[in-house]
Fold this protein.
Amino acid sequence: MRRNVKRALDYAFKKGFQIHPEVVEILGGVEDKNLDKIIKEIIREKSIDQDFHITGNDIIRYLGLEVDTNIQSKHEILFDCTARLTMPGESEGFDSLFKSRFEKLKNIMEQRPEAKNLRNISNIQNKDEQDSYVCGLVNNKVIKDNTFRLTVEDMTGTLEGFVVDQARNTLRELFLDQFVMVKVDKQGGDVKFTDIIQPDVPLHSTNKGDSEAFAILLSDLHIGSKYFMEREFREFLDWLSSSDPYALKVRFILIAGDIIDGVGIFPDQDKELEEKTIYKQLEKAAELLSLIPDYIKVFISPGNHDPGRRALPQPAIPQGSAPNLWNKENVFMLGNPAMISVNNIKVLMFHGQSIDDIVKGVAGMEYAHPADVMRSILRARHLSPIFGSQTPIAPEKEDLLVIENIPDVFHAGHVHVTEIDVYKGVKVINSGAWQRQTPFQLRVGQVPTPGIAVLFNLKTHQIVLRDFSN
Ligand code: D5M
Ligand code: FE
Ligand code: ZN
């Protein structure tokens, strides 16, 4: 028996596997460089199913497999905030930002039947009204004992009222500054809101790709941090080039921010850094990502740890800081947010900074369940609805954080917890992290689930999680 075959088999024995005699024969004909990868992959797969036998068929499944060049790999960048940023000064910017938010969401709301009874707030100020609707941004909400009050504001004025009946349930989940439409019952000075409608998404039937290609969703690598899981990430990169049947079908990798850990992002960060400059961190990122086979397209948008600007929307990581990422033909540098189409599946990429604001500001939301927060973001049709909380928002002329077009997949990161959900036909995916628990997260009790690659089958929409964490 060849030495390398024996080594591969010893490895399997050590992991508690029984090996069918025909395996020895088949492995005799396998090139040395593939042996370890094949055995490791089979062991990983079978361990999940608690099946501790390796047969000849298991090996054959992995042999003779190669990258199928007929698999479709078509992409289009549908929206990238980078090109749309105007960066005006603060004083001129915010008025027009909120006007834009209001107008865009009003247009969406006007597609609903109730909107035919829509009035401006100034039109109903001195009259009694029943069954009229007004649109507005949430100016204030009060839920206390048995009091449920809401104040909304449009371009013409503000209106405060008591929320009654079922509308109280909707009131609980509203964000300050988000857009709503309310049904108004107004008698004398007494204002009641009998219904609250969020922009929401209609039931969505998703596009499907033609061929069985996979997109892998990643975020929060935090390269440069002492807690970056380099060994596990390298195993993932190795796996991409392996003859694993899934790996062979990967055509896209989408990274939703926090590629690097950055510098000066939080107090005393330098004590937690392996690489001390942004340039070195990004250089290392480029080195690692260059191990991805060239036929896989890689899309990168920034997060709060990446350079560019901190406030949303964020332009792409600047070319000057990351020349070796920008130079690669299969790497596409995008802003945050961005919407791309991969084999006709529309993916909205957003780092997810606003999840902090929502967890802090809305009862019932938790870091352990980012998908719930992401659902509520879809209902509000806005990626960062709460203004003046933790997430900095730039004074732009146009509000580029309104979710105007409904994606097939809503991909975010930031909270370092992998969670998959579906809301009205939209796949909601938080792609986790590749950084182990940091001292900060330990202190505040956040438990990440790092080291998981989310594989999305663009034809069947099936999701497969690959855990590289041990
Ligand atoms: O965010 C990593 C995680 O830490 C994510 O769950 C948000 C959380 N985080 C970050 N900053 C804060 C503050 N100031 N308070 C509470 N939670 C926070 P990352 O962007 O990778 O640092
Ligand atoms: Fe992060
Ligand atoms: Zn982040």
Q: What stands out?
A: The first helix runs from residue 3 to 14. The pocket of 2'-deoxyadenosine-5'-monophosphate (ligand 1) is lined by residues 220, 258, 304-305, 356, 367, 414-416, 441, 444, 446 (CB under 6 Å). The first strand starts at residue 18 and ends at 19.
